[in-house]
Design goal:
structural constituent of ribosome, about 80 residues, mainly alpha, Small ribosomal subunit protein bS21, Ribosomal_bS21
């Protein structure tokens, strides 16, 4: 269940804006809109290719040093094999 807690003295408009921002960053609103109508496989492939750079940028922004080390080790092992 997604939600936000309305803080004491906070306007409802501000809490609603925080909720919308949270849903938007998680992609829930976009997915809801997408499921309303049929999407052909070609259109799906185009949409995924268009949004991939944004997804990957967010994913790699939060990589920890230990994850980086593991990725480098895996790349080295793949290069040797």
């Amino acid at each position: 269940m997604r939600g936000v807690v309305v803080k004491k003295g906070e306007p409802v408009d501000r809490a609603l804006k925080r909720l919308k921002t949270k849903l938007d960053t998680e992609g829930i609103l976009e997915e809801m809109r997408r499921r309303r109508a049929f999407e052909s496989p070609a259109a799906r492939k185009i949409r995924k290719a268009r949004t991939a750079p944004k997804r990957h940028k967010v994913r790699w922004r939060y990589t920890s040093p230990s994850q980086s080390a593991k990725a480098e080790e895996a790349a080295a092992a793949a290069a040797e094999a």
